[in-house]
Amino acid sequence: QVQLQESGPGLVKPSQTLSLTCTVSGGSISSGSYYWSWIRQPAGKGLEWIGRIYTSGSTNYNPSLKSRVTISLDTSKNHFSLKLSSVTAADTAVYYCARETYNSGWYADPWGQGALVTVSS
Amino acid sequence: DIQLTQSPSFLSASVGDRVTITCRASQGISSYLAWYQQKPGKAPKLLISAASTLQSGVPSRFSGSGSGTEFILTISSLQPEDFATYYCQQLNSYPITFGQGTRLDIK
């Protein structure tokens, strides 16, 4: 079965770029009709959808973050990545990657375990 | 953006109780709604997709209903492992949004 695992620095300085990678195992990231997405959750708060990339490479971003977000796909490494620029303390959160699938409706499953990123000098 | 409002935000119940959580959308989303369960320190777990499709491996005490703007998650008989936070998510239009969550605590 497909599994996802986030990786990247756990500490990022303000104004710098947050970079995370989601490695997919148990299946090819370029096969099937899936979206590969990023979601984040500040401590003690709810979930915020950041954006997603289709297997073709097309992307959709949350307008609230669009000017700072880039999601890309690396089929040779079977992973996809998130870059969030000009970070502030408000970007401190657990970042999840997930696969979005369509079966009568879209849904996100599976999810990675999450990666805590702290923005601090 | 489509706003999802869950009610209640907090719910205290006992083992064996029947509980319902409502998710209201600010505009119609057909049946493009999913429900997730999240326990502390863990990723959300998909329970229900397309408003009412129970995912494989999810106990049958969970059920979902609704379409358009009002959706309900029902747990027919609470078990100890069901105490968690529940989120609805709409995947009808961008940006994809989540409800604020319903925390279900033991009474």
Question: Oligomer, anyone?
Answer: heterodimer
Output the number of helix runs of chain A: 0
Distance between the termini of chain B: 35 Å
Alpha-beta classification of chain A: mainly beta
Low-confidence stretches of chain A: none
Number of helices of chain B: 0
Which series of helices and strands of chain B comes N to C? EEEEEEEEEEE
Largest sheet of chain A: 7 strands, mixed
Total beta strand runs of chain A: 11
Span between termini of chain A: 39 Å
Overall mean pLDDT of chain A: 96
Radius of gyration of chain A: 14 Å
Radius of gyration of chain B: 13 Å
The helix content of chain A is under 10%
Describe this structure in words.
The complex is a heterodimer of chains A (121) and B (107). Chain A has strands spanning 3-7, 11-12, 18-25, 35-41, 48-54, 59-61, 69-74, 79-84, 93-102, 106-111, 115-119. In chain A, strand 7 (69-74) and strand 8 (79-84) form a beta hairpin. Chain A is an all-beta fold. In chain A, the strands form two sheets. In chain A, strands 2, 4, 5, 6, 9, 10 and 11 form a seven-stranded mixed beta sheet that branches. Chain A has a four-stranded antiparallel beta sheet with strand order 1-3-8-7, with no helix packed on it. Chain B is mainly beta and 107 residues long. Chain B has strands at 4-7, 10-13, 19-25, 33-38, 45-49, 53-54, 62-67, 70-75, 85-90, 97-98, 102-106. In chain B, a hairpin with a 6-residue loop joins strand 9 (85-90) and strand 10. Chain B has no helices and eleven strands. The mean pLDDT of chain B is 96. In chain B, strands 2, 4, 5, 6, 9, 10 and 11 form a seven-stranded mixed beta sheet that branches. Chain B has a four-stranded antiparallel beta sheet with strand order 1-3-8-7, with no helix packed on it. Chain B starts with a strand and ends with a strand.
